[in-house]
């Protein structure tokens, strides 16, 4: 908690009014004791303390969780086996999966009193092609993805979360013939646009591109899907023990410039 509080103070000094707390399975779900087990998960009281501390600085803490991929730590346990499609991906069209996600939302709404949540949905490698395929046969990934998104969004709304955010990479990868997030030649038609719920914001995460032409086009493609778009750039802290200033300086200003050009927050 000391680190998080220090971060909140520094963000407040820079005028930040919102922090996304990325937690995957790093919080307690009493109904699922294997959730975050031996991972240093936050207790309910610790999360409440973080939220209360941030409120002192008029900062809203938004839970940023996962509801399909990035679930390898939870799925490693035998108790979770029936919810596993791929080693990192939850089973779609599964009552057990949706019961888990419903429990997530219930628990998080007790802690984060506002109506905003980030549901993840990035890097869902091979979903629908593992155990799901053996049970259900082949379902086009784009159809299965949007079906899952809409079901998760319904559960979020049911539990009081009205503003829902998601990482945007998977629709692009699925639609791309070369399986690339940054494929500028994908076709975005009504079948795609009409499947994104009106209360869902696409979060374009891009920590790598240095060419403003590429970032501009990606933002234009996002805006063709929905008018609810947010850009998430990155401060490079994941490749070494210290902050990588050269990589950040080569990318983040480009992303900020492209966001301003495209009227993106």
Structural description of this entry:
The protein is α/β, with parallel strands linked by helices and 265 residues long. It is built from 10 helices and 8 strands. The chain has helices at 2-13, 44-55, 72-75, 95-111, 131-136, 141-158, 169-175, 190-193, 212-225, 245-261; strands at 18-22, 60-64, 84-86, 89-90, 116-118, 163-167, 200-205, 229-232. The chain has a 4-stranded parallel beta sheet, with helices on one face. Strands 1-2 form a two-stranded parallel ribbon. The chain has a two-stranded antiparallel sheet with strand order 3-4. Strand 1, helix 2 (44-55) and strand 2 form a beta-alpha-beta unit. Helix 9 (212-225) packs across helix 10 (245-261). It is globular, with a radius of gyration of 19 Å.
Question: Brief overview, please?
Answer:
The chain is an alpha/beta fold. The chain has helices spanning 2-13, 44-55, 72-75, 95-111, 131-136, 141-158, 169-175, 190-193, 212-225, 245-261; strands at 18-22, 60-64, 84-86, 89-90, 116-118, 163-167, 200-205, 229-232. The strands form three sheets. A four-stranded parallel sheet has the order 5-6-7-8, covered by helices on one side. It has a two-stranded parallel sheet with strand order 1-2. A two-stranded antiparallel ribbon has the order 3-4.
